């Protein structure tokens, strides 16, 4: 049996993986899949891919592109979620900030350098015509609980995180959402470290086939709204809204999209150069 260790955020996007595990779909194909949650997000998973702590990651597109360009020996092997991620822009409930423009020059909470919350702060700045050299400041807070603590002690001013996962904190009055920021490309990809690609290409093909079968049929599962709601502490209405705008993919991220993302990251000085498509992807 081939062992594959995979990492992902503990969010509703990854429920198809857990359903496939509970159905023993991987075991039936002789794959021993070990799932590891990474609440810290993309930055943590990039490091885990580098060290070999995980073989595969369900990871933000911009984050893994940045890390591969900066030396991560991994490749994108498929798009996972085709639709863009809706990042909520959050402040403390009692904050004096009322609009996104008010946040210019203030301190953003980020889970870690190279994380989605870090990179999307740059995208948000660009979309609002801020000077990325002078109008962006950061404080590392690890995860959403760290952000809440940062708001309490006044060390951060705003925080970008997936809109629906933070909705319970907005509903409870701990956070206030003052805007949204959409990723300019498909949000999640599946990446594998080069060692795994070379060692177990057939097992990775089986892995992709299994998750594609589950993601393709995910929305048609009876009462899936209730399952997501109960699993992730989300309101049914919010789950229904999320399902309407979310589309999974069963194909590799194409070259124009990869190049668009790289050009964006290069313009924002997040990456030092633009790689060839084949240096970032692997077609199994």
Automatic annotation (TrEMBL):
Q: Does the keyword DNA-binding apply?
A: no
Entry's family note: Belongs to the bacterial solute-binding protein SsuA/TauA family.
Pfam family of this protein, just one? PBP2_Ca3427_like
**Official protein name in the record:** Substrate-binding domain-containing protein
CDD domains per the UniProt record, alphabetical = PBP2_Ca3427_like
Record keyword Signal present: yes
Would you say which domain of life the source belongs to? Answer: Bacteria
Question: Where, per UniProt, does this protein localize?
Answer: Periplasm
SUPFAM superfamilies recorded: Periplasmic binding protein-like II
Q: Which UniProt keywords apply?
A: Signal
Q: Which InterPro entries match?
A: Ca3427-like_PBP2
Residue ranges annotated for the Ca3427-like PBP domain, each copy included: 92-180
């Amino acid at each position: 049996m081939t062992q594959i260790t995979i990492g992902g955020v503990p969010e509703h996007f990854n429920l198809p993986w857990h359903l496939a595990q509970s159905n023993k779909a991987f075991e039936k194909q002789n794959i021993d899949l070990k799932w590891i949650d990474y609440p810290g997000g993309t930055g943590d998973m990039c490091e885990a891919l580098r060290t070999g702590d995980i073989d595969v990651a369900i990871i933000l597109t911009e984050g893994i592109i940045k890390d591969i360009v900066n030396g991560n020996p991994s490749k994108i092997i498929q798009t996972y979620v085709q639709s863009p991620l809706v990042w909520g822009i959050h402040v403390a409930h009692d904050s004096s900030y009322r609009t996104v423009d008010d946040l210019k020059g203030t301190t953003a909470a980020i889970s870690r350098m190279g994380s989605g919350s870090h990179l999307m702060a740059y995208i948000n700045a660009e979309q609002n015509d801020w000077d990325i050299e002078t109008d962006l400041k950061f404080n590392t807070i690890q995860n959403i609980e760290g952000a809440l603590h940062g708001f309490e002690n006044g060390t951060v001013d705003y925080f970008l995180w997936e809109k629906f996962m933070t909705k319970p904190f907005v509903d409870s009055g701990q956070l206030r959402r003052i805007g949204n920021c959409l990723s300019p490309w498909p949000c999640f990809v599946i990446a594998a470290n080069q060692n795994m690609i070379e060692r177990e290409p057939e097992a990775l093909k089986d892995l992709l086939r299994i998750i594609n079968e589950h993601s393709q049929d995910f929305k048609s599962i009876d009462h899936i709204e209730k399952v997501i709601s109960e699993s992730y502490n989300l309101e049914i209405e919010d789950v229904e809204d999320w399902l309407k705008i979310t589309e999974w993919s069963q194909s590799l991220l194409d070259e124009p999209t990869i190049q668009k993302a790289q050009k964006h990251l290069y313009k924002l000085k997040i990456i030092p150069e633009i790689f060839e498509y084949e240096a970032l992807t692997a077609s199994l």
